[in-house]
Amino acid sequence: MDTSPFYGVPPIESDDSCLSDSDSDSDEDNRATPSDDSSADEDPDWTDDATARTSAATTRRTSAAASTKWQEVVWDSVQQQTSAKHYPVWQGTLPDADEIREPVQYFRDFFDAELLETISQQSNLYCAQENPNSALKLDPSELEQFIGTVMYISVVHLPRLRMYWSNDCRIRQVADVISRDRFDEITKFLHFNDNNNMAASNRDKLFKIRPIVDSLLQKFQAIPQDQMLFISEQIVPFKGRSSLKQYMPKKPHRWGYKIYVLCDTKGLVHSFDIFTGKTAAEHGEPDIGPTGNIVLKLAQAIQRADHHLLYFDYCFSSLDLFAALANKGLPALGTVQQNQLQGCCFSTDSDMKEKGRGTFEEKKVVFDGAEMRAVKWFDSKGVIVASNFPGAHSVSRVKRWDKTLKHNVFVTCPSIISLYHKFLGGIYALNAQIASCRIQVRSKKYYHRFFFHFVDMVVVNSWLLYQRDCDSLDVPKKERKDLLAFRTSVAQALCMQFNEISSVKREPPSPDVERELQKKRFRGPSRALPTMEVRSDAVGHWPMTDSERQRCKFSKCKGQSVYKCSKCGIHLCLNKHKNCFIEFHK
Q: I need a labelling partner for 452 at 20 to 30 A (CA). Which of 6, 91, 214, 242 fits?
């Protein structure tokens, strides 16, 4: 039985592109093709023997070369008085914010008008290609509403998608914005690249999502970077049939697409690379293996003149990688395994355990013209960290729980270990923030799963930039929006604020009016007040009568009215004595 439809085809060993004229990411059946006459006349036994002898000879030469290289690496023990190295000083600064912008403005920095127009055009084109008798007629404004509704769907979880429009479980933030059939239609024809431009010899497995990837990469790499940067892998959950799907047993979601991410210590993404198979060396870069090539590729987005520090774990570490980064002037630090350090021998865990917790050893080597340090530290078990800039000293003390003594004890910890653990949590924070409200719209098309993941990633990036601006302007913590409030604010603006702006010039809202509205919002109105950006867009706000009279929601009015705004859904006074309707929407 062929198990590849269930477990996917490992892209490392596969030369078949996952792209075809269809939109699914299924693999084509591999059928044997007849060979030519010359190959048919060859003796199969002689060919197999020759191939075996050639393969064995190549293996012996490769093993001999690797063994020679292993023996040439000689590590020296480092004494305490010579182990200290200078810590790189960051010469860059983050820009100061002028003001705190609306959440949707941060989001539109990434999903700008040009990208939305591209998605709309490609979706309309794909609909015409699939069914010439129908037209999708999707425009950027409606596309923003579609994105806003899927954000609301990620916040309010229901077992079935159609329940958002049902009478029993109707969610007005979704059902009032877009109909169920229109939502299904947009989802069906959502497309990002023209299939007619895909040549038969095209080997780009990400062709159908390439415009989104290129646009977001350019904007992510333009974000000002902090000093500490981290490279790790991220998984996009997916259990369907796909040759790009990977199995990662140590991840919370074991099946899905793998993405390598360059982010800072808070999770702000600066670059990424989607795994489609073995990564070849970039032009002008040394070939140090698939994982090392990924680090060098992502490191091209780092501003080396500012003395950034790069972190990664043992999945990427090697002496070749540390040497390549050192020769490029980029300090790096990462955990390693014993077999990744050629010629380096540390004491065993049992020997270090006898010496007590906090025992460490440090060794150094000059490899490819770069000096590197490796430190093994024993706490509850041994851990090895290598770098091309810091050493073990100075030594600090950390608090640990002792199971035998039943109280906390202080354990010696080298500076290289403390430095690694201090700035480790960037990728974990990013994954947790994305997973907190992940878009769960199901689709068999692999580029849909990537698109919704990038929407989640952009929301998190936008929120982190908002937090950076709040830190710059010393905004109190209690006045900031958390990720959930930020996400719902973006969703509301995308759903309710149209792109058409009235030509009538409006005065900026008064600070006193905005302050009173915030007080009224805090007291708990019967219906949530729309954001300032929505209520001042001058699109779709019409007075309509209601069957019952309710309190006016304008901050300076305490009267009651039967008139309410058709878009905002709140009651406002509208008579010959006062016109709160106009004042509220200024």
A: 6
CA-closest candidate to residue 492, choices 117, 53, 186, 148: 148
What one-character-per-residue DSSP string does 489-553 give? HHHHHHHH--S---SS--PPPPHHHHHHHHHHHHH--SSPPPPHHHHTS-SS--EEEEEEEEE--
214 burial type by CB count under 10 A (0-12 exposed, 13-18 middle, 19+ buried)? exposed
Do 428 and 441 form a contact (C-beta atoms < 8 A)?
no
**Domain locations along the chain:** 513-584
In DSSP notation, 196-265 reads GG--TT---TTGGGHHHHHHHHHHHHTSPP-SEEEEEEEEEE--SS-TT-EE-TTSSS-EEEEEEEEEET
pLDDT in tens, 531-562: 877 888 878 888 998 888 888 888 888 889 98
Q: What sign for the dihedral angle of Cα 264, 267, 270, 274?
A: positive
Following DSSP, what letter does each residue of 146-215 receive, concatenated? HHHHHHHHHHS--SSGGGGGSSSS--HHHHTTS-HHHHHHHHHH---S-GGG--TT---TTGGGHHHHHH
The tokens of 7 are what?
A: 């477990």
Residue whose tokens read 């003796």: 43
- CA pair distance 486, 471, nearest whole angstrom: 16
Nearest to 295 by CA among 233, 221, 369: 233
**Separation of CA 44 from chain center:** 51
Report how far residue 472's alpha carbon sits from residue 487's, in angstroms, rounded to the nearest whole number.
21
Residues sharing a CB contact under 8 Å with residue 407, sequence separation 6 or more, in sequence order:
401
The whole-number pLDDT of residue 193 equals 95
Q: What's the CA gap between 69 and 71, in Å, rounded?
A: 5
Give the SS3 label for residue 390.
coil
**Cβ(205)–Cβ(244) under 8 Å?**
yes
| β-bridge partners, 311 | 230, 333
CA distance linking residue 18 with residue 208, whole number of Å? 11
Task: Please tell me the distance from the alpha carbon of residue 377 to that of residue 374, in angstroms, as a whole number.
Answer: 10
**Given phi > 0 = left and psi -120 to 50 = alpha, else beta, which region is 286?**
beta
Condensed to tens digits (0 to 9), the pLDDT of residues 379-432 reads: 889 999 999 887 767 788 888 888 888 889 899 898 888 888 888 777 888 889
Q: Which helix (H) or strand (E) holds 370?
A: strand 370-378
For the CA atoms of 523, 528, 530, 532, the dihedral, rounded to the nearest 10 degrees, stands at 10
Residue type, 412: T
Q: What is the CA radius of gyration of the chain?
A: 30
Maximum Cα interatomic distance, the chain, rounded to a whole number of Å: 103
Residue 478's CB: how many other CB atoms inside 10 A? 5
Residues 255-294: tens digit of each pLDDT = 999 999 999 999 999 999 999 988 888 888 889 899 999 9
- Within its chain, how far is the Cα of 198 from the centroid? 27
User: Which stretches does DSSP call E strand in 62-128?
Assistant: 76-77
Instruction: Give the number of other CB atoms < 10 A from CB of residue 171.
Output: 18
